[in-house]
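hey can u check if this looks right to u? its 412 residues, i copy pasted from the old doc so theres a chance i mangled smth
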Amino acid sequence: MGIARLTICGAIALMLQTAAPPQTTFRSGTALVEVDVIALDKQGNFVPGLHITDLELLEDGKRQKIQQFFMVTHLGSTKNTVSQFASETDHGARRVFIMLFDEGHLANDSLARVKRGAEEFIRDQMGPEDVGGVFVGGGMFRGRLTTDKGELLAGVRAVKPAFDNRQGLLAPFREFPRIPSEHDAARIADGARELVNEIGVKACVDDPIDCQTAGGLQQVENLIQQKARLYIRQARTLASNTVRNLQTIATGLSRIPGRKTVMFMTEGFFSEDSRSALEKVAAQAARGGTTVYTIDGRGLIGGTSLNPDTVSATRARSTAFDTGDDGPNILTAGTGGFMVRNIDDMSRAFGLIVRDTSTYYVIGYQPDNSTMDGKFRRIEVKSKVAGMKLRARKGYAAVALPPQEMLWTVNK
């Protein structure tokens, strides 16, 4: 088998690679809205064998006619298909994995941890038909997606620590005078004088010697303001870079039919100012069939077990100073993925994502409201089977997809 390649130029553009026939090309229409659905029983196991009559789909609260329904699995050959658009069922022929290293929001130890996990994922968990790409430094490594594991490993090894990272920016919060959280820093940067005074007074009561050394309460308050403003300015820059990278990926992947998986490796980021932008990115990604999974590079923090529940939002975590989970949560909830946290074994972390993206149902429908007005449309998928839990994207941006040109060409 030769190498399946996808050339990237700016955003992820699709280009044919010339090769001797035969060629296999899959195309997809843009009229359908597709929703990937994970169906689980009470034990958390995937439920196979569902039929179109077992599910109900609503858009903005109105029931929609399901025109396409099938199960995609990369664990066997089973596929249940009901479709008015037969060619659509081919879009699950390969898995597409994008590894996004959020360099500005990964401390050196976290970066080393997720790089090891990514290398193990490439070597041990990617199949010969899987296509992958490493997004690093603002672009795709070597400008393309590929099935070549050697090239993907080289991409992972090319990832370097950022000169400034989020943990480094948060470090002064732990020093006198301490700032309780980045949320407080944001309020201070926006002019909350009463909060500055409250934190300053507490700092001088708790550490009177340090307060006197700093020059008294007034100077302590000045220092608090300086630290908060500096952090927020730098954190905004880092967050802006992250959002821009996510936007580039979502835009480019929207040209590829079918499900695409983004493995977003991060420690979280400052999202006070970027919630709206992140929601738009998630909605655009959902429209284009891209699911975002996040992996917390910090590994096991605050847990009591060697193997805690890695996708639970209720596990104990070290959240002092740090409220960075909001951004990753917006992305995963909006696209139907999940957050992997509190786990040191990154091979297992990647494995959870691989398992989740290996078997799923696809629902396709043409919305009753066919006007692509750019607004957010809320999606709800309901089960008619007792005891079954469903996970799917929560909605999408009603925008027209770009031409679904060439998915990929396989060089025999």
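The mean pLDDT is 83.
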